[in-house]
Queue: 2 jobs
Job 1
Amino acid sequence: MARQHAPTPLESRLGYLLKHAQLRLARASAETLAPFGVDGHELAVLVVIAGDEPLSQIEVGARLGVDRTTMVALIDGLEDRGLVERRRSPRDRRKNIVGLTAAGEDCLRRGEEARREAERRFLAPLDEEEAASLVRALQVLVATERSAE
Amino acid sequence: MARQHAPTPLESRLGYLLKHAQLRLARASAETLAPFGVDGHELAVLVVIAGDEPLSQIEVGARLGVDRTTMVALIDGLEDRGLVERRRSPRDRRKNIVGLTAAGEDCLRRGEEARREAERRFLAPLDEEEAASLVRALQVLVATERSAE
DNA sequence: TATTGTTATACTCTATAACTATA
DNA sequence: TATAGTTATAGAGTATAACAATA
């Protein structure tokens, strides 16, 4: 009886590929973003905070998949650097509404530019159609898994 | 002067997509692999060890992007469970050649089966062409970034 | 001198439990 | 009673420094 499958080599393992692609993009982004004093994770927090409705810490965390205890330290850091500010919600005084300062908006705008540039460089080895297809596929996978929770 | 770019929403950020896709696959795989007593990372170690040439701990780590201090604990765990064994290289007595035990080969075979199944389920929302294109794109990105180091 | 494996240590990230203030 | 924020703490995962054995 012959072996049905040889072990899949590393380079074809989806888990390996996703992990290493993520790691490498994160490192490249961190380098590109360093001059602006934020990393990719913090920039994503700024993006969520910049959205239309005012959000509490927990609501920001929910959109990012970050729990509330982690949010405290994350917001602390951004507030120390003057990028965001907490203010009590008048309607529910348990909640901290988190808002961008002027410096935060500036950091967001310039950080986003840098992040786009880092992504563009990262995707450079792919042609336009391949890159678009990659993003579409990841969107489907992340959305599917989320709704199946 | 109009703003050139609105901040990219989370779902179009490559960093967010890669991180969450990786996380979700890792969790699904861990669940699928749990009955076999290994996680995806450990299974990848078994795959590397199962390769043709006998490898030392450092050589196994190099292929996985894991440093030698991390390898010690990783191999300790696998050895405690009787899946691998260390033996001194006769040619260079500084090196531990790591080999699979019979139980390790069995675990590898059955774990690989389970991992393939988990990947298949994870990719199910994509059609065959989309899934193949995703894997190809990731391979290009990981290979490119590695050679640029 | 350099390399392999090892240990101890530290640092990041994340999660859990318990507290407070509000509802 | 439940929820938002906070703190302290603990657990993974990973990285650095120093040491013993060997080359």
Job 2
Amino acid sequence: MTLRVTNTLTGEKEVFEPRDEDEVLLYYCGLTTSDPAHMGHARSWLHVDAMHRWLEHRGYDVRHVENFTDVNEKIVARVGEAGADEAAVAERYIAALIEDMRSLNLKRAAVYPRVSEHIEEIIAMVERLVEAGYAYEADGSVYFDVTQFEDYGALSNQTLDELEAQGDPAERSEKRNPADFALWKAGGVAPDAIAEHRHGEAAPPEAAADRALTWDSPWGEGRPGWHIECSAMSTTHLDDTIDIHVGGRDLVFPHHENEIAQSEAATGRTFARYWLHTALVEVETDEETEKMSSSLGNFETVSGLVRERGPNVARMWALSAAYNTEAVFSTAALDEAEERWERLERGYEAAVDACDSPAAGATVADEPLREAVADARADFGAAMDDDFNTREALTALLDLVGAVNRHVAEEPYDYRGLRRAIEALETLAGEALGFELGDAGGGGDVRLAEDLVDVVLAAREDARDRGDYERADRLRDDLAALGVEVQDTDEGPEFRLP
RNA sequence: GCCAUGGUGGCAGAGUCCGGCCGAACGCGGCGGCCUGCAGAGCCGCAUAUCGCCGGUUCAAAUCCGGCCCAUGGCUCCA
């Protein structure tokens, strides 16, 4: 009945109580637009999507904001290779990211704000921090003074002493404390900052640096610091206090820690009530496992995977483990996800087919089936309410699939029970988890393909009737090579398009 | 070094917050059977788990407490 979520701030599962009983403000720390999205990003996206969907299913109006960080050294490093200047490079990657999100069937956020469009708000927030004594200017840059913020380190569970010990005293001598972080950075981008992110064909650092964006500010020409953007955009598009802030676990420190410090120092309010962190994706190399990351170059892109396996397999892979446990990306893991997805999809189709068949008797009531539907709904809800446990939720759905398959094995059919099963799968698997079930609503191309397969299968039936199994099997193999799966049943051959 | 997370069957992965229904779910893979021209799908059944190690609390522990070992992530590029 009550939704509970693991809050990084406390490290505990807490009852979720939004500020407003029917609205949830959710901010997702989006991507830096300097690389294509990989499956690590996709897994995070997919889990946030499941959260978004479940919150809506529970009746909340979800105001979801996801930013694009389009001002960053890594983007500048792409100048010449992916665009003529920082803005052009960012634009190109943003278009690709949006395409990826669409292909994954993600619920749209209300807005996708960009750093470059919020410089005013960022400067205003920095000014407020300086005025309030939380930040200081040094050489045209502005730094946040961590000693002024009492709770600094609360999210990552570190004390200021520990953090100071970690800082590199050699760098940034104008900082008062090694743990202080930049809110505003003087000047443009230094070529050496670009050099380390340079890719093959990128422009030489000096040339790229010239094409970096800079803005006027009370402290002179410069660029926003890394963390301030999210604070500015979250408060601008949502509110000073939001309900849920989600992001990858790799952002806990320093990014989220700093967001809290600067936001709360600026507004005097709690920045986010619940901090949820998605675990990272790992890749197995010859020697060890390491996280999938753009900078390590060990990634599989979203577009590539969607092309090869489809969005539902990607989703099944992502949701087959809880959002806060790490996942391994491998061919074997994808194969398993594909099998799981197909079992779910086939179960749904079996229910639909049975319901449409003459064997769906009007008076039969199959108690086990009806009970299974009720159990599935209850178990699914309990699982999602328990910290968005998508794995358990999927278990409930696959249990229902088993019940459907058992019921469908023998006629007559309980059409009302089947209807309930279909509705449960559509609302739970479809709406709440975002799978695209029975998306047969294809256009003319799909219908033509179906008609063509029917023609081939008719020829195959002829061959089978003649006992020419060699030819029949060859036709089936040829269809299989095209991704068309053929199955012989009592009612004749059935097929599924790829 | 500091912080965090995790160690459950061949694989993957729930359960650990709130001890007993867990001799441990769902799925993948393996084996056998039903069905079938064959295959696939589906159904039924079987085999693999002293739940990282040691100790403690308890009538009862995968679940609580203490210690240890190991793995991964973070420690100012990162979802």
